[in-house]
Design brief:
Helix content is 69%, strand content 4%. By secondary structure, it is mainly alpha-helical.
């Protein structure tokens, strides 16, 4: 959501610039370069990692001392085909953290909620049909992974997201 808002702000600023100087810009070479960049910038902004906001929020919560839960933690070295189920598992476990934060009134509750919102949007936008029986048979269910403490869970989650962003 934050990235989308930044894109809108950038596009609005570019619109204002072009609105006031459009005819002048068309008359010289610099103006044509600016118009080209305006058309190119939204495409490059979309090219950065879609999980960047989730990663930032994970970095903010990783040192939280008031979250004390055991969570199913997927292996970071799982098969590439299992990447989507692994991401879904991490976000399912984030729901557990949210509930824990609501109960204990954690200092990082807003960051945890932000991770869930941004992650769910990305997962919905990236929905891949997972009907392939070989893939689903090959990939573990979330509950099949080892339970680990909050710190280890966040470290694994960060590694998985960094792998996605490469």
């Amino acid at each position: 959501q934050r990235t989308h808002l930044k894109n809108i702000c950038l596009q609005y600023q570019l619109y204002l610039l072009l609105k006031h100087h459009f005819l002048y810009l068309l008359k010289n070479e610099t103006g044509l370069i600016i118009i080209f960049l305006c058309a190119y910038v939204p495409k490059t902004a979309a090219g950065h990692c879609k999980w960047a906001e989730v990663l930032k929020d994970l970095e903010r919560i990783k040192t939280s001392k008031d979250i004390d839960v055991s969570l199913y933690t997927a292996n970071t070295d799982e098969d590439k085909e299992c990447q989507e189920p692994i991401m879904r598992c991490f976000f399912l476990e984030m729901n557990v953290i949210v509930q824990e934060c609501y109960i204990k009134n954690c200092s990082k509750t807003q960051d945890v909620v932000s991770i869930l919102k941004n992650g769910n949007v990305n997962l919905e936008n990236n929905k891949v049909s997972n009907t392939n029986s070989l893939t689903s048979a090959k990939c573990k269910e979330c509950e099949e992974y080892e339970e680990k403490n909050f710190t280890e869970f966040i470290q694994s989650f960060v590694k998985v997201i960094q792998k996605e962003c490469k």
